[in-house]
Amino acid sequence: MAKKTRSSRARGKSKRKASPPLPKIISLFSGAGGLDHGFRAAGFEISAAFDISEAAIKTHKRNFPNSIAIADDLITLRPTGVSKIVANNLNRGSRIGIIGGPPCQGFSRANTTATAADPRNELPKLYIDIVRKLQKTFKVEFVVFENVLGMKDKKHFAAYQNLMKGLRKLGFDVTEKELCATDFGVPQTRRRIVLSAMRAGQKYEAIRPRRRKGPFSVRDAIGKLPRPKFFSPNLDGKDIPHHPNHWTMNPVSPRFRAKAVAHGGRCFKQLNWQKPSPTIAFGHREIYVHPNGKRRLSIFEAMLLQGFPKSFVLEGNLSEQVEQVSNAVPPPLAKSVASAIKRTLAG
Description:
This protein is α/β, with parallel strands linked by helices. It has a domain at about 20-215 and about 330-345: Rossmann fold (3-Layer(aba) Sandwich). It is about 30% helix and about 15% strand. The strands form two sheets. Strands 3-2-1-4-5-7-6 form a seven-stranded mixed beta sheet, sandwiched between helices. A two-stranded parallel sheet has the order 8-9. Helix 2 links the parallel strand 1 and strand 2. The relative contact order is 0.15.
């Protein structure tokens, strides 16, 4: 039998079917768009995003100008409202992927008063209900759900089990991963549960995010930045040198007048130049103290410790920006998850 020539092999390759377009992304509880940014970086198109925070949606519109972004309470909007909005922008039967992480405060271990009865703990059920509703109009190829480790604690475990059962009942094969941001090029010891649910019956493999290299320590991420702008009335982002979010509150506490602020404590936790940052999960304006001990981090510095690119800009006042950067999924981690799903979709 004659051997195949290079040209015949090339013709054979040309006859292979091209891969179908990637599913469009519907982002629930999107926040500023950390998870969305990771999926966009992996090649997915963000079709629609939903969040209750007007400031977060303003941020989303600035950084994802080609997406539909809706500022509304998903509890009020209900699955029917979400489905109508998505249907206005996508053709019936379109392949979609649904991503998001409901607010985690009800499950967080940092919330010492958290109980299973916290109303926020009903949001994973709402997430499942929205997926179910969208399945009636679209082909939901995958679902990604992110949340804190505390969701698996004993007092919340029933809600976690119901989430897993709900995804499987809707016809998904679920890969459960506990991922740490430092393994994905993010200088932060942030550990989260990530569920990747692929449409069953498609011979999809389990989702295996690949580790990524990047800055490891606080110094790697923010060591070369200039001094930030301190807050003043009517401060405008255009007046802030280097980056619109490179600003922080004036260091008025007597603790800042010392050579350094003592390590530890919730309100005055000082970062170490040589180590990754602890989980960026600030309370009301309780931004970590800069390693020099003289001030708190700027919003931009916190963003870099979350793995946001320098081109990303947050909108809103200080509290709103703090909330957005605290709640975000680190984009490099999100990109690894998205890339793993992309590989699985390609077979």
